Each structure stands twice: as C-alpha cells, then as structure tokens.
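note to self: dont lose this again. the chain is below, predicted strucutre after it. 181 aa total, dont forget to put it in the shared folder this time
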Amino acid sequence: MTTYDTSTPLPGADAGAPLRSRTHTWRPRPQAGTPELLGMSGLEILRAGIAGDLPGASMMSTLGFRLTEAAEGSAVFEGDPGDHLLNPMGTVHGGFLATLLDSALGSAVMTLLPAGCGYTTVQLGVHMIRPVSADTPTLRCEGTALHVGRTTATAEARITGTHDGKLYAHGTTTCAVLRPR
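---
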C-alpha cells in the first residue's frame, strides 16, 4: 500500500480544514488465461461480475464506479464524482470521464467476443461537453459496439447525468481483438 502525506497544507490552503481520507477494497480477478475465464464469453464474464460471481475490475473501486448492465453489444457503468477526483482547477479530472468511457466502450466490445478472446484499446477519442463538480450526482455511461470483426472493433459511448439527463461527455474507441493462437 502506498501512502502519501497530505498533512502539510499547501500555501494558500485552509490550514484549519480537516484532512480527508478514502479507502477502497477489492478482490483480485482471475488471470485472463485461467480455467475460470477460458470457457466464458465476454458477456458471460461481465454478467458474472454484475452478479458478484466474479470480482469486478479493481479500477472500479479505486475511482468509484460500477458496471450496472451488460447485454449483447452494450454495457452501462455508473460513477460517483467526488472531491477525491478534483483537478487543480477544482473540477472533476477528465481522466475520470475518460476512464468511464473507456470502460463502457471496451466492455460493449467484450460482450460480443466468444470464449477465449480478449481485446485491448488502441485508440480512445474523448469529448468533454460540460464540467463535472465534486457534488455532481451519479453519472451514467452507456457504451454500444458498432463493429466487432476478426481483428478490430469499434464502439461509441455517452456519459449523461442520472439527475438531469444532460450530456457530459462522449467518446469512441478502436480495439484490437485478441484471438487465441
């Protein structure tokens, strides 16, 4: 575990403000080539994660988001902004939105992959539409696979507010499809 000392206030910071901490826990996932995963399609793996039969990706607990739906060609994640995600400008870092998009995009592709196949992102295009603040309610990211071929796949996704329905960001991806040798 890595710990960073944040007890010394920065110049101009409120020295009287209480320190905050955030803890997350996770269960390790089986390795990609293990028997638990080899016989499962991408959709089966994602649904097993939703059901709690397989651990979710550890990145989800780190940043505070979760996989909520998976169907053929689509995946939905929901994420909770917070002050632990702020950038130097005081808004939620774009990397949080990019991670939500990358997760939904890749998972949408994954839902169409047969057992034994994997994928990796080779291109990610992200468009931020409006800022997200620490107190923005839950965001929903819906990804849809557009093309899943033998060697490449593409998908698109949108992040909207569950509270206001507004578009916060959208993106696209190209993935390499990794087939067994």
